[in-house]
Prior knowledge:
Distance between the termini: 10 Å
Organism: Streptomyces stramineus
InterPro entries: Peptidoglycan-bd-like, PGBD-like_sf, PGBDSf
Protein name: Peptidoglycan binding-like domain-containing protein
Strand content: 5-15%
Signal peptide: 1-29
CATH superfamily: PGBD-like superfamily/PGBD
Keywords: Signal
Amino acid sequence: MRLLKCTAASAALATALLTGATALTTASAADMEGVQCSYDIRTTPPTVHLGSRGATVREAQCLLDFWGYGPNFEDAEDGEVAGVFGVRTERATVLFQEKRGLKPTGVVGPETWAELRHS
């Protein structure tokens, strides 16, 4: 399991470090096996949705950002995730779900967590 404190810049740097790249590049899915941020380290955190707040939402936002679906989240400052699941987070979730072949509900439940963590 790889722990990350994600922002757009740190995700790119972490990718380079984890893959041993000499330049910043996008990592393959195989390189990202077991990715998680440090906000909620449970394998499958509880479901979060529009209106949710807190560390579990931060975890979802961080992972969405890591996979390229952020960082323009509600109340975010300087690229940090804020832990407020608003319409921007919902839209990022839908885009991620569509790209991964999941039902685009905008809700981060068990299937979406598995894809975000790539486990």
